[in-house]
Amino acid sequence: MTNDMMTLRTLLEKSSDADLLREMIGFTAQRLMALEVEGLTGAAPGERSPDRINQRNGYRDRVWETRAGTVELHIPKLRKGSYFPAFLEPRRMAEKALTAVIQEAYVQGVSTRSVDDLVKAMGMSGISKSQVSRLCEEIDGKVKAFLERPIEGDWPYIWIDATYLKVRRGGRIVSVAAIIAVGVNSDGRREVLGMEIGTSEAEPIWTEFLRQLTRRGLRGVKLVVSDAHEGIKAAVTKVLCATWQRCRVHFMRNALAHAGKSGRRVVSAFIATAFAQETAQAASIQWRAVADQIRPKVPKLATIMDQAEPDVLAYMSFPKEHRTKLHSTNPIERLNGEIKRRTDVVGIFPNEEAISRLVGALLLEQNDEWAVQRRKYMTLETIAHMSDDLIVRLPAVAA
Asked: Which residues are 349's β-sheet partners?
C-alpha cells in the first residue's frame, strides 16, 4: 500500500493538469489488474506461497480508449489459462466500426431510410467527411494488421464458409461473398485465420483465398470442413492436399428433400445409425446397409448416399474426442449468424471497404474473446499428436 501511495504521489507531482486524469486512470487500471491476477494466481508477484495455483508469464500491450484519452495498458499473462480485465469492453471495436459504416453511408448519400433513422437516433446529424475519414482510418489499420498477421504453428482443422452481403458497385446493388476461415491449432486454440471479399464462390476465388493463407504461414492442415461446394473441394485438394469433410447438417437437409414428408423422420433415423458407429469402418458398413435398404423405394436418395459417403464420413477417421466439432460447419455458422445480425443494421454497404471494416472488426473481437477463454476448444492431450511438428507431439516427461 505504501508503494502505491508513493507512485500516486509521483503522478500528482510530475503530471500536467491535462495529463493527470489519464495517468490516474492508467494507474488505477494497472492496480486493478494486479489485484485480479493476484487472486487468480494465489500469490503476489515474486512471493513464495503454498497457496499459489498459477504463475505470471509477462505482459501483452493493449491500447484503451477512454473519454480522458488513450491509455496504454500492460495486461498480465498467465502460464496456465488466460486473463482479460473485466473493466474493458470486448465489443467496443465492433461498435465503432458499425458507427463508421453508418456514417460513411450517410455522408455519401446512399443510406437507406432505416440507416437515416439510426443516424438521427445516435445524434450524428452533423457529420463531416473528415470525421468519417479519421474514424475509418483508425479502424482500418487495426483490422488490416489482424487479417494480414502471420499464421504460426500447425492447424490440423479449419472450417471455411461464405456469407453474402449487399453492396453498391457502379450505381448497382450487387451481392458479394464474405469468405471466412476459422482454425484450431495444435495447442487446441481456436482463431479466425482470414477473411476476403469475393464476387462469388467460384473455384479461382477459393483457391486464391487459401493460397493467401498459406503465404501467411498456414500449414499442417489435416481436415477442412465446409458445405458441398465444388469450388471449395477443388481448391482444398489443389492448395492444401487435406481431407475434405462435407457438412453433415447440409447433407441431411439435401438428402431428406428426396425422402418425402412422410418418410423424412424414418430416413433420418436410419442414416443417423451410421453416425453412431465407433469406427470409420463400422460407419461405412452401416452407411451402405442403409443405402441398400432404402434403394428399392427411394433409388435417387440411395444414389446420393453412394456418392456422398467418403465426404460425409471423412471425420470418422479422426479422434473420437473431436468428431462432434468436425462433422459440420456449426462452429463457423454461429460466427456467420453474428455477422448477419450486425450487417443487417446497415442493409446495403456503400462499398467493399465498408464490409471489410465492419466484418473485420467483428472477427477481430471474436478472436480476442476466444483468446481469453480459459477452456481450450480442444484439449492439448487429444490434439497434440495431430501436429506435424515432432516437438509438439512428444509426450510430457514427468519431473
From this structure: 167
Residue 359, Cα to own-chain centre: how many angstroms?
11
Sign of the torsion formed by the C-alpha atoms of 379, 380, 384 and 385? negative
Determine the 3-state secondary structure of 190 from DSSP. Answer: strand
Q: How far is CA 288 from the centre of its chain?
A: 36
In this structure, what is the dihedral angle of CA atoms 106, 108, 110, 116, given to the nearest 10 degrees?
A: 10
User: Which three three-digit cell numbers place residue 306?
Assistant: 453412394
Cα(399)–Cα(391) distance, integer angstroms? 18
Q: What is d(CA 247, CA 265) in angstroms, rounded to the nearest whole number?
A: 19
State the Cα–Cα distance between residues 203 and 225, nearest whole angstrom.
16
Please compute the mean of the pLDDT values over residues 320-346 and round it to a whole number: 88
**124 vs 114: CA distance, rounded Å:** 14
* Dist. CA 339–CA 324, nearest whole Å: 24
CA dihedral for 370, 93, 77, 8, sign (positive or negative): negative
Q: How confident is the model at residue 399 (pLDDT cuts 50, 70, 90)?
A: very low
Read off the pTM. 0.69
Q: Is-contact 240 282, C-beta < 8 A?
A: no
